[in-house]
Amino acid sequence: MLISDIELTNFRNYKKVKIKLNDGINIFYGDNAQGKTNILESIYVCAIGKSFRTRKDKDLIYIGEEQASVNVKYKKRDRDGEINIDISKQKSIKLNGIKINKLSELIGNIVVVTFTPEDIGILKNGPANRRHFLDMLIGQLRPAYIYDLNMYLKILEQRNIYLRQIKIENKSEDMLDIWDEKLAEYADKVYKYRTEFIKKIKDKINIIHNMTGNRSPTRMPTWILPPNMSATLPTMAGPMLPPRSPAIAKSANIAVPPVGNALEEMLIVPGHMIPTENPHTIHPESPMIGFSENDANK
pTM higher than 0.85 for the full model? Predict the structure, then answer.
């Protein structure tokens, strides 16, 4: 998949801009605070439906304006597509000219992965951060996962309400088995999606790990629990950051700033748009880390 065109109107610091991308590697470079990350943010908004930098849509609108729009065109193996998002007091999303009402209909059309300095929290903070990280990635590759995860969370919420009613209002426990059965059904689906994803990630990490000269396999725990389900089992941990070695980065198709430079936001998408200063040479034919397009279509 490739992103071919980006058009921004009143988005962040861009009043009006059109960008035509080529089919190879596209690198945005320049001084700080010039808008490199804003371009990548616009792609992320079209892929996920929201920003990775702010929770407030109004922050995306050019100062003094009331509305912003983002238009991204992309090419896939079997079709071309276009996503348009209008941002004002309410957000309007169109996929190939047709308005959609659910984010689940948007996610997966453009697959993106972000890496920012704040993402170190995936490793340093609690397991909820790691589960959220997995949810964002899996949801793009397996749209049905979003539905199953949302159903799990809704059933969990309703079950908790019912438990409080049993305790406070002395309600009968007759319905509890039904809630438990449905909760277990969707928990199992979420678990299977996550373990499948972790296995694929682990296989890729082992390949990169072996490039360092250490031939012993990388071991990563694969117990991935559904959200909010407590247990004494280990949760996912391990380095999910790009390697600092230029040689490894070259093989993994990742740009790595030289040691000593501050890490800047990176977004690796099909089309290979990576903002970085003085990037190392990247081999255009080397494999990306993650699922293939065939995986995404399953």
Answer: no
